[in-house]
Specification:
The chain has a 15-stranded antiparallel β-sheet that branches. The chain has a two-stranded antiparallel sheet with strand order 14-15. It is about 0% helix and about 75% strand. The two termini are about 40 Å apart. The chain has about 290 residues and is mainly β.
């Protein structure tokens, strides 16, 4: 890690972290009693031996905090590279049907680049924060089953987002503090299957998210009411091709068709002496 003080108002630094790979071994069993139309069909015993070896993880962070005149500057940069190789062997023993041996290999590579710049400037007796955030991610997720009991897939997920934002806050004497902001997010998501772009599962969109809050003190009671809107995205695990094989009729994997959700949240918080209370309402939809 490096930290350098340019002067009393400006400093920058950087840090690099490396995590060496580790290997995990896991053994699980699953028993299944299967019926069809209320009648006994079969009984299965599944033994899974799984070995997961992580790749060398690289993480870089850099920052700059400074001031030019009345303008405050806060900048951060992050880079991450990680992944793992997973091999599993599933032995499925059946009472009626033929036994099954399933080998699977799942190789995952992740890469992320992110940066955020926040500028703060005094304005109209208050403070204006404005800036932008940039995130670029890539995930390569390959799943192979040589016996073809499960379809082998080779996918790449790429996402890029840029989000300018601004927020103004001001303390009004004898009234309280008010904050109001807006954030615009433009996101591009590309899904590749076997190296080919899948247009139906790729998308690009832009959304505007406002936020506002007001805090005041009523006698001995401190209170704040706030509204905000934001986006939640499915995790790469939820989008993953990695398959959990329970038995020949029970498979679980991610879904690359999952869409983002927008959450609208209204909250009320208060405090009187040592007593705190809060009330919130959230509405989430895709």
């Amino acid at each position: 890690a490096i930290n350098y003080l340019l002067n009393e108002q400006n400093t920058f630094g950087a840090k690099y972290e490396i995590t060496l790979p580790a290997t995990e071994d896991e053994t699980t069993t699953l028993a299944s009693d299967v019926t069809a139309n209320g009648q006994f069909y079969d009984k299965w015993q599944n033994l899974t031996n799984k070995q997961t070896k992580g790749n060398t993880k690289h993480k870089v962070n850099a920052y700059f905090v400074g001031k030019i005149g009345k303008l405050d500057i806060d900048w951060n940069f992050d880079y991450l590279h990680s992944g793992y190789d997973e091999q599993s062997r599933i032995t499925e023993t059946c009472q009626i049907q033929d036994d099954r041996l399933l080998d699977a290999e799942n190789n995952v590579r992740n890469r992320m680049v992110a940066s955020k710049l926040t500028l703060t400037y005094p304005l109209f007796g208050g403070s204006l924060d404005f800036g932008a955030e940039y995130v670029n991610t890539k995930r390569q997720d390959d799943y192979v089953n040589p016996q073809n009991y499960v379809v082998s897939t080779f996918s790449t997920l790429k996402e890029q987002s840029i989000s300018p934002y601004a927020e103004f806050s001001r303390m009004i004497p004898n009234v309280g503090q008010i904050r109001a902001g807006v954030r615009y997010e433009h996101v591009t998501f590309d899904y590749y299957n076997n190296g080919q772009l899948v247009n139906d599962q790729s998308r690009s969109y832009g959304n505007l998210y406002p936020s506002i809050s007001f805090g005041t003190q009523l006698g001995k009671v401190q209170a704040q009411i706030a509204y905000s809107a934001k986006t939640t995205r499915p995790t790469y695990r939820q989008l993953s091709n990695d398959v959990f094989y329970g038995n020949r009729y029970s498979l679980m994997r991610g879904n690359p068709l999952l869409d983002n959700s927008t959450i609208h949240n209204i909250s009320l918080q208060g405090m009187w002496k040592f007593i705190q209370f809060s009330l919130s309402y959230s509405d989430e939809h895709s």
